[in-house]
Amino acid sequence: MGFETAAQTAIFAALDGAMSCPVEDTPPPLPEGLPDSDFPYVVIGDDTLVADEADDVIGAQATITIHFWSRVPGNKQVKALMGEAFGRLHRAALTAPGFKLLDCLREFSTVSVGPDGKTRHGVQRYRIIMHKE
């Protein structure tokens, strides 16, 4: 397992079953085409990875973007979902086989309204600092 997979595995393990809505590892079709009954849901999205190494440590820092989708009017539901994720991820002791995950920090959160005028889209990004065991 590589660093990218380790970060994705750790985030999914922390959120799946712990959120009040489904968490998807693979994005469903675009939200504009989904019926209201398919909302809310969370998608683990894009990531970046940079080396974070020393002479005696093979490490990396990954950023993971998480998308929150809701069709409830207003931002309350999508922000509540983002709060659930924050409670499970920020400064949490995440795990992935073969890696020591040193920290997980939220970098930012934002909410916007989709082009259809009713879909709420929340975005959070987390930074995971990890070393290979």
What fold name goes in the CATH topology slot? STM4215-like
* Strand segment tally: 5
Mean pLDDT: 93
Level-2 CATH architecture: 2-Layer Sandwich
Q: What does the main sheet amount to?
A: 5 strands, mixed
Global geometry: elongated
Q: What strand line-up does the widest sheet have?
A: 1-2-3-5-4
User: What value does the Rg take, in angstroms?
Assistant: 16 Å
Can you write the helix and strand succession as a string?
Answer: HEEEHEE
So how many helices?
2
**Percent of residues in β-strands:** 35-45%
- The domain tally reads 1
Give the termini separation.
Answer: 12 Å
Structural class: alpha+beta
Oligomer: single chain
- Considering DSSP H and I runs of 4 or more, what fraction of the residues is helical? 10-25%
> Unreliable stretches, pLDDT < 50, 5 or more residues?
none
Quickly name the level 1 CATH class: Alpha Beta
List keywords for this structure.
20% helix, STM4215-like, alpha+beta, 133 residues, 5-stranded mixed sheet, 2 helices
Task: Report on the architecture of this protein.
The protein has 133 residues and is of the alpha+beta class. It has a single domain (3-132), classed as STM4215-like (2-Layer Sandwich). The chain is 20% helix and 40% strand. The chain is built from 2 helices and 5 strands, in the order αβββαββ. The radius of gyration is 16 Å and the shape is elongated. The N and C termini lie close together (12 Å). The mean pLDDT is 93.
